[in-house]
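QUALITY CONTROL LOG
STEP: pairwise intake check
CHECKER ROLE: data steward
CRITERIA: each record must contain a sequence immediately followed by its structure tokens, with no blank fields

ENTRY 1 OF 2
RESULT FIELD BELOW
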Amino acid sequence: MSGYVRFLAAGGCMLASIVAVAADDNGGAGINVGGLMAYPSAGLAVMSDDNIYLSNLRKQSSTIEVVSPGVKLETQRRDDIYSLAYRADLGRYNSASGNDYNDQSLKGQALVNITPKASLKVNPELVWSHDPIGTTYGFVVPGGFVQTTPNTWRNTGVSAIFSYGTDESKGKVELEGGYLGTKYTNNRNFTVGYDKKITDAGATFYYRVMPKTSLLFQAKDERIAYDNPAVAIVPNSTQQYYLVGAKWEATAKTTGDLRIGHVSKNYDASTAPKQNYSGIVWVGKVSWDAKTYSRVNLVLSKQPTETTLPGSAYMLVTSSTLGWDYDWSSRVTSHASYNQYLQNFGGIGLNTTANNYTLGVDYQMRRWLKTGISWMNTTQTVNQLPYEALMYDRNVFMLSLTGTL
């Protein structure tokens, strides 16, 4: 995913693919090794999934165990902070072992304060992961499937943001750039057309109009180039974003970052199917801490992204997520959320609508040990019966245990 898409996904685009256990980032006290802080973590999840292939035409259930070891290393030199984090998610399906996976990631961060007003943040990453069956669409033909194993891939990337100005400055500028290369490693009869490189560059200007409120203006250019254009679903393309918005902290209880604007997606000249897109996009998050023990988050996004369904020109994705966390005590926290995820496949008139509901409770057994139970329900519908393979209902129950030293 590009940096822009990754920001949206981190905001809560719950495409119902897989439930993974994540140990708290720096949730433990850490281990000091000669000035270098180490934060080991481990997670264990046992899940019951009644529709692992995300289709009512091929419904199969399975229990899944996921083991998630990880460690984060961090050091500070004067005002500069450097970190390196490794994590693995090792999943095993009891009733469908062909879906087993060994995902791994290695991500770094360097935060360098050049002057009191200027700083540079650099984030390199190397990720090995997979697309569970049902989350990409190269396998879909009207009325059925052709895919039997998940797609596996490797991402290599780096992103950077240079900032000049402080939160108290009247004006602040952020310059950003990034590179992300994606290489699929199996199912090459159709994933060979997914390999691509994404480069982006942009700038955001903040203008403070009140002590805790700034207006913002953002421009960004993104280039998507496929490694094998002769077999790619769509040609190479360029996307330009122009957004305006605001970032605020109205009170200690309410914060937000909302942006709306225009995007144009233009394909290179090619004989492959193409349909340029131009329209309104938005992205934002609003957090409301009604009480110290009650937190509400709203995440909204709309933008075009790359398609994996043959015959379509792009996917226009609209996602809305509302979540509520409530601390019943210092040890018990409940979580509830609703997400609607809409996909419009340009060029073929296909629309999918997924509604996701999640409920969960965590119990902090010790400072370093937490357990939880959760349930997720997803229902996806389509507007064209020839693509009924994409329709499904799914329920996932999960028991988890996470620990950090």
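ENTRY 2 OF 2
RESULT FIELD BELOW
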Amino acid sequence: MSGEPPVFIVDDDPAVCDSLAVLLKASGFGVETFESATQFLASGGAARHGCLIADIRMPDMDGLALQEELARRGALLAVIIVTGHGDVPLAVRAMKAGAVDFLEKPFDEESLMFSVRRAAETISSAGNRIAALQDGRARLADLTKREREVLDLVVAGRANKVIAHELGISPRTVELHRARVMDKMNARTVADLVRLSLLVNG
């Protein structure tokens, strides 16, 4: 698949690096792996162009700190953050700071490729942001007050049980509202909801 941007994987778990590299190489992407953020920076990472997949939790420099350092150096990389379930609020911070997407563990091959292709599109074209903004605002306006409350809490990283407690409704009702929100916002994942919310709310 010629013309695909290179993908750089930064994760302190060699097994994760290897498995991601195998999947991406099989789809035609050039891949380089790094065991730490400092190793990536030392390799001239800030001057590279392509897609960066970085784990949010690493011992020497975490994914957020790496993203911030790359931004400080003016790097032109589309960043995807890999996160554990409890790190969703951190991933939201990363997206506010310019990350293209986040992948919540455990993720499957389809989710990985979807995110990487989205990043590739971001690199090759800025896309039609105005149309996306108008569409997002229209979808948001279609939500009921309760659905909007559920959306805001999901984006904030709250679990269904916590949302239920905060809104004084049952977890089952939260699930129903959440499903309707996903449908109305045309979102496949929580990351999609976060992206749409950030796009519309700035």
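INTAKE CHECK: passed for both entries
DESCRIPTIVE NOTE, ENTRY 2: Residues 7-124 form a domain with the Rossmann fold fold (CATH 3.40.50.2300).
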